[in-house]
Design brief:
4 helices, binds S-adenosylmethionine, alpha+beta, Elongation Factor Tu (Ef-tu), domain 3, globular, 6-stranded antiparallel barrel
């Protein structure tokens, strides 16, 4: 129907500019259709500028946040059952962080700190209850008054000892984290920032129980 050279031009043009499947069949109508379609898209992009602004505003109110792990935490703990429940119960237990190589420069100056705060994803947790029986209690407590791993946003925080850094490997101890846990962030631990010496510090239901975290091991209560 079309001269061969025109047909092949139309085919090449539509394939190159519109990333079309060259086996579509109708060449000239196809080309026209896609030209019009592209202009309409361009036009919509311009008039939708206000919509883009709206999207930016929606992002500020954030209904969904996406994080990418910066590395992986390794520890001797392969099972969630029977492991320490806080760093205080994991004294001397060694682990290591394998940081994604692209973040290597971010480790500059970190070796000057004896302790670091690890923020990580409780990747083996699923679902949550707003009231749970924590490891250190027999009574139900509101999830936000506990350190339980099964929470609406399953994020864990542990202050661990920094042993040494070699390249992108960070050697740590006092690890209460299961092997292969995705790491979200590292921050230096600065007691002057994080510790409060105020006389009126209250530790709620942990008052007569926190010391048990030295001996207490996890069990299966958060595994279902
Ligand atoms: C009570 S949480 C406390 C963790 C952290 N220190 C905190 O306060 O956020 C520690 C327990 O979480 C569980 N756990 C550790 N790593 C986990 C992971 N990656 N996914 C799910 N559960 C994890 C283990 O049972 C461990 O004993």
């Amino acid at each position: 129907m079309y001269p061969t050279n025109w047909k092949s031009f139309s085919l090449k043009f539509s394939t190159f500019y519109f990333n079309l499947n060259p086996n579509c069949g109708l060449y000239l109508p196809h080309l026209l259709y896609n030209t019009i379609y592209t202009f309409i898209k361009l036009f919509l992009c311009i008039i939708c500028h206000f919509d883009l602004e709206f999207i930016k505003i929606s992002v500020k109110t954030m209904t969904k946040i996406e994080f990418k792990p910066i590395g992986t935490i390794h520890s001797p703990f392969k099972d969630l059952d029977g492991m320490p429940i806080q760093p205080v119960g994991a004294r001397g237990i060694k682990g290591e962080i394998k940081l994604n190589k692209k973040y290597k420069d971010g480790l500059k100056d970190l070796e000057g700190f004896s302790h670091i705060i690890l923020i990580y994803f409780f990747h083996l947790s699923s679902g949550y209850s707003l009231e749970v029986k924590p490891f250190l209690d027999t009574e139900k407590r509101g999830i936000f008054a506990t350190r339980a791993p099964k929470r609406p946003n399953p994020i864990g925080v542990s202050v661990v000892r920094l042993e040494k850094i070699e390249g992108t490997k960070i050697y740590i101890s006092d690890v209460d984290i299961v092997d292969d846990t995705p790491l979200l962030d590292i921050k230096p631990y600065i007691p002057n920032f994080d510790k409060h010496d105020d006389d009126d510090i209250k530790i709620g239901w942990f008052e007569n129980k926190h010391h048990k975290a030295v001996e207490k091991k996890s069990d299966r209560r958060f595994l279902d």
